[in-house]
Amino acid sequence: MCPEKSEPMNPQVKSKARVAEHGEVFTAEREVNAMLDLVKLQTERIDSLFLEPACGTGNFLVPILQRKLDVVKKRYGGVRRRADFEFWSVIAVMSVYGVELLEDNAAECRSRLYDTWNTQYSANNKKEATEACRAVVRYVLERNILCGDALSLLDSRGQPLVFSHWGAHLAGRRIKRTDWTLAELLNPPAVTPDPGPQLERAAPAETQLSLFGTPEPADTADDSEGRRVAEFKVVHYLEIIAPEEA
Ligand SMILES: C[S@@+](CC[C@H](N)C(=O)[O-])C[C@H]1O[C@@H](n2cnc3c(N)ncnc32)[C@H](O)[C@@H]1O
To answer: Are 53 and 96 in contact (CB under 8 A)?
Structure first.
């Protein structure tokens, strides 16, 4: 007798209709890990930024966060370093971004990322996270995993998708939040360098895609490119909810 086939933990297809309407076929774990291994060093940097423009329920973002949390555990594991573990685990959550067309998928993605963080937190610290810290993680995930269209760069109300950059100030474990529209992040104004009269053929410039520019310090906040939507006061990482504009 054949053993009964068990359902995979994250099935690749929810329904035929969703495949037809939205191309919703999730990537299997083995392929995800093989692809993430191609950028292994980045997945193991706690603060390296990842954006998935059609993130589904998080089949890429969840293992990315898990890899980062494994590094947090290696560096700051054990109950004696609880405070460091907590701060860096929140920084890891702040570094993963996604856009997803369907609200149920976006919600599931946030929920899986939250559970990944929460499970690792409890296992490492031998106690549950405080409600204040949990609320911060939920708040970050609400801002980082957006429901919208990655082609039009608009949300379901037709408003531009806006992402927050969470800049870490290590002294005092503080965070500077700066908001940017995704449209401007993806299409920064072109800079055409003057090659000078003596150059016949300029070598192609090496380009490095960067999710966010390097935000200027608060006292030189003028954004001449008009890309910045808002910037907020630097606050302790547990105080990022209900921020005050700078
Ligand atoms: C092929 S699935 C892949 C999901 C995930 N990247 C993975 O590998 O498991 C494509 C996902 O993209 C979403 N999607 C389709 N068009 C989109 C768009 N224009 N903007 C954002 N998400 C979109 C679908 O809802 C679906 O969840």
So the answer is: no
The residues that bridge with 245 in the sheet, in sequence order, are 232
pLDDT per residue over 120-138, tens digit each?
A: 999 998 999 999 999 999 9
* Ligand 1 neighbour 59 (Cβ under 6 A): yes
Interval 28-56: pLDDT, tens: 999 999 999 999 999 999 999 999 999 99
For ligand 1, what atom is nearest to the CA of residue 26? 9
Q: How far does residue 5's CA lie from ligand 1's centre (Å)?
A: 27
Cα 20 to middle of ligand 1, angstroms? 12
Would you kindly state where each structural domain of the chain is located, as residue ranges? Answer: 21-160
For ligand 1, pick from 22, 35, 102, 186 the residue to mutate: most ligand atoms within 8 Å of CB: 22
Residues 6+ apart with CB under 8 A from 109: 55, 56, 57, 58, 61, 62, 98, 100, 145
Is the beta carbon of 64 within 6 A of some atom in ligand 1? no
